[in-house]
Design a protein that fits this description.
seven-stranded parallel beta sheet; binds adenosine-5'-diphosphate; 40% helix; binds magnesium ion; 24 helices; alpha/beta; single chain
Length: 678
């Protein structure tokens, strides 16, 4: 029970909720049975047995009768035991799943017991059925046996053992079932209505305390954390902003920049999530923030999840900063030892103010003179532990800006990352033409290839992406190679040149192949999803995604975001096999109907549920037992509002009316992963 279900204590058992109930509170007259009912309970006189059929088809047949009709009973197993145990002619109470055979009602493997009128009268609650596992079932601890344990437990717990943990006024205002009742009624409800009320109460509790914990963390950080102060806008920032900014910032970019400036100027540590759809222009915001840090005498680093992306950031940033007298370095896993040594020295003595790189930048040997800002691009690839490493890099913790292009719906973001502050770039730079997305089947391939040729003819470049199927690196590789060979037959050298990038290549080779594409040496880029994140080649205007059905929505959207970055009209072609499942078909429909990342994220969430959304898995915060952040969104909003009101008024929960909250939080300490989230 412990290992299998994570149930260790009585408290765990109380929280091991049933997934359905059996209603044995009512008895149906056989004549009134109807196909709408799933599980039924009847009383009747048992008729004689008959064994029919042979081998697999061998079965025991009987029937029961009441005044209104007759119900057939069937057993396929334990035939002789059953014949011994129950006796025709007696009155039985039986329960089971109702089915119809040749128009007649029947129950297969009914539960049966001799009818005692006084016993039936005592059944006044629904009977719970619990999730169990095969192993436990084999040991006699199936879903219903667990119910027996729980029943015994509930007989012994008193109201004091499950004290109310919400302030009385909230319980009353929201008409919540009291906590003790809720635990009783969720297991053994007197009625469906009571069960629903119990679930509502316990869901609210789950959501509410999750919010409260995170809001507390955030407000404590706001009040007590000390952070480096970026209070002046200096020469680098001004010079760049006035003379070298290649375009006017969108108002969303300006707003976000202001939010960050305010946040970093007040002497507390910033911990901020910046969301912006692919192509919304997060890099320039990051760059300006780094200049802000530098102008205030601090070093800044920006980490990317892949080598390719880190190099691209490095190129973008060093090109933009070339006219400022600033030392910009890049550190990755493949930086050569000599170069590395030089960089480490420059970071330690402060002569390198701006560093870009992969997670190599937070490895142990890297010491900064005075690190003030860390920007993490595409954060979902970075684990919590890696982020924690940052704290060791400076006396005062540096400001942290986490950037992600995997849009998470706002409610979800606020719940999953409620301990972070939140900024969003919700506007694309002007002049972007929407990417035209189409869905094509494999057998249209040659028409698709002709289209690519025409686009290449116009001077455009093309991405062709193959999926990673994770389980098998070898299969992925073979799949890609087969694809590459086929593409080559359509696009032979020397008329066409193809870059290929995949996970098995050494970093240098990936880099060279990528670089050739960036420089328009090659017209086609054939790749696995290694290019998914961040690369920017404005002249590439066509994205072909092979086996699109194998990708999730947010991944498809990310990939599509690689095109549509230049002035030309861009296309995304989703290739799939002929046979598509319902979900895959739905994904294609969504992709071809919208370009909006937030809208797609919402749909993704509906299709897959919150547990699977990238960037939330590791947060562990959405592992609610009862609540579902999508379906219970309204409740999330209510809980959030109440939390905010409470904490604004009483940030330490020190008022008497909030004592219950404080006690409950204290009793939960160490049970959750909250403390581990940076
Ligand atoms: P992402 O948010 O996906 O990281 P990038 O920062 O790579 O997006 O920006 C995408 C493209 O948009 C880049 O080519 C960048 O130069 C350009 N860009 C960013 N901001 C603006 C703007 N305000 N006006 C015009 N182009 C912009
Ligand atoms: Mg980016």
């Amino acid at each position: 029970m412990q290992k299998e279900l994570g149930v260790f204590t009585f408290n765990d058992l109380l929280h091991h909720f049933p997934f359905r109930h059996i209603d044995k509170t009512k008895i149906t007259a056989i004549g009134n049975l109807n196909p709408e009912e799933e599980y039924v309970q009847c009383i009747g006189v048992l008729n004689s047995f008959e064994v029919i059929g042979a081998k697999q088809g061998r079965r025991l047949l009987s029937s029961v009768q009441d005044k209104t009709g007759s119900l057939e009973l069937v057993w396929f197993q334990s035939i002789s035991t059953i014949q011994k145990m129950i006796s025709p002619g007696s009155i039985y109470l039986m329960y089971g799943k109702l089915s119809y055979f040749l128009g007649k009602p029947q129950i297969v493997h009914p539960e049966m017991e001799i009818w005692h009128p006084e016993k039936v009268a005592g059944r006044d609650s629904l009977e719970p059925v619990y999730p169990s596992t095969e192993k436990l079932k084999a040991r006699g601890l199936g879903g219903r046996q667990i119910g027996k344990l729980t029943a015994v437990l509930l007989m012994h717990v008193k109201e004091n053992d499950i004290p109310e943990n919400l302030p009385q006024n909230i319980v009353e205002e929201l008409k919540l079932m009291p906590r003790f009742d809720a635990f009783t009624q969720i297991h053994f409800p007197k009625s469906t209505a009571k069960y629903e009320a119990a679930v509502r109460r316990l869901k609210f509790e789950e959501i509410f305390f999750a919010q409260l914990r995170m809001n507390l963390l955030r407000s404590q950080r706001h009040r007590f954390s000390k952070g480096v102060v970026f209070d002046k806008v200096g020469d680098h920032f001004n010079k760049f902003y006035k003379e070298h900014l290649p375009f006017e910032l969108t108002s969303a970019q300006k707003r976000v920049l202001k939010e960050i400036r305010t946040d970093t100027a007040r002497g507390r540590q910033m911990n901020r999530l910046l969301q912006g759809d692919v192509g919304s222009g997060k890099t320039i915001v990051a760059l300006l923030c780094m200049l802000l840090a530098v102008d205030n005498g601090f070093q800044a680093v920006m980490m990317a999840p892949t080598e390719i992306l880190a190099r691209q950031h490095f190129q973008t940033v060093s090109a933009l900063l070339s006219s400022l007298d600033l030392n910009v370095a890049i550190l990755t896993g493949s930086t050569k030892a000599r170069e590395r040594k030089k960089i480490l020295e420059g970071l330690a003595d402060g002569s390198i103010p701006v560093l870009l790189g992969t997670h190599a930048v937070i490895e142990d040997p890297v010491q900064f003179k005075n690190l003030g800002l860390v920007i993490i691009d595409e954060q979902h690839r970075f684990g919590v532990a890696q982020r924690a490493k940052l704290w060791e890099k400076a006396a005062l913790p540096p400001h942290v800006l986490v950037m992600t292009a995997t849009p998470i719906p706002r409610t979800l973001a606020m719940t999953a990352y409620g301990d972070l502050d939140y900024s969003v770039i919700d506007e694309l730079p002007p002049g972007r033409k929407p990417i035209q997305t189409v869905h094509r089947y494999d057998h249209d391939r040659s028409a698709v290839m002709d289209f690519l040729k025409a686009e290449i003819e116009k001077g455009r470049q093309v991405y062709i992406i193959f999926p990673l199927i994770e389980e098998s690196d070898k299969l992925d590789y073979e799949n890609l190679m087969r694809g590459y060979d086929e593409i080559k037959t359509y696009f032979p050298e020397p008329q066409y040149w193809i870059s290929m990038v995949h996970g098995r290549q050494p970093a240098m080779q990936k880099e060279t192949n990528m670089q050739r594409f960036v420089e328009h040496d090659t017209q086609l880029m054939v790749s696995t999803t290694v290019i998914e994140v961040g690369v920017n080649v404005p002249n590439a205007s066509v994205m072909v995604i092979e086996s699109s059905e194998k990708f999730g929505l947010s991944q498809l959207h990310q990939l599509r975001g690689r095109v549509g970055r230049g002035a030309e009209k861009s296309y995304c072609i989703l290739l799939t096999g002929k046979k598509l499942g319902r979900d895959a078909r739905e994904r294609m429909k969504i992709m071809t109907s919208t370009n909006n990342g937030f809208e797609i994220a919402e749909k993704d969430l509906e299709l897959r549920g919150p547990g699977d959304i990238e960037g939330t898995k590791q947060s562990g915060i959405l592992n609610f037992k009862l609540a579902n952040i999508i379906n219970d969104r309204a409740m999330v909003d209510v809980a959030k509002k109440i939390c905010e009101e409470i904490l604004t008024d009483d940030p330490d929960l020190s008022q008497l009316r909030h004592q219950r909250l404080k006690d409950f939080l204290q009793s939960q300490k160490g049970k959750t992963a909250w403390s581990k989230i940076s």
